[in-house]
Write a structure and sequence with these properties.
Elements (H helix, E strand, L loop, with lengths): L8 H4 L3 H10 L8 E7 L5 E7 L1 H10 L3 E4 L4 E4 L8 E8 L5 E8 L23
Parallel strand pairs: 1-6
Antiparallel strand pairs: 1-2, 3-4, 5-6
Helix pairs in contact: 2-3
Length: 130
Amino acid sequence: MSSLREDTPFTRAFAEPDRIRIWEMLKKDVAGNVCAIVLDDADGAPLMQAYMDREAFLLTLETGLMHYHSRSRSRLWLKGETSGHYQHVVSAQVDCDADALVFRVIQEGAACHTGHHSCFFRDLSELTRA
């Protein structure tokens, strides 16, 4: 569990019973995860896409810092825990089907593990040259 917690309008908006009720209303994939799309609050540019399980979702709403479920490592992942590149949540939206979330964040450093500001730095046509 993350020991970091931010006191922001975002974290103050969700009391514990509300966080749990919202999670229960979301539609999950077969693994129990929800897709999370992350946008830079400064310009709306996409930063990354990842998945959240129940623990990651609840901790994100509680702490104001983005948490994910790492499917490759099968564990909770606080973005920035090793790199220092934390994502501070400004707002969150849910899509019309309640199966995907969009978070607007203030990004510290790079969002991508490659060192790029965004994970979306490659043009789709690059895949034809691979």
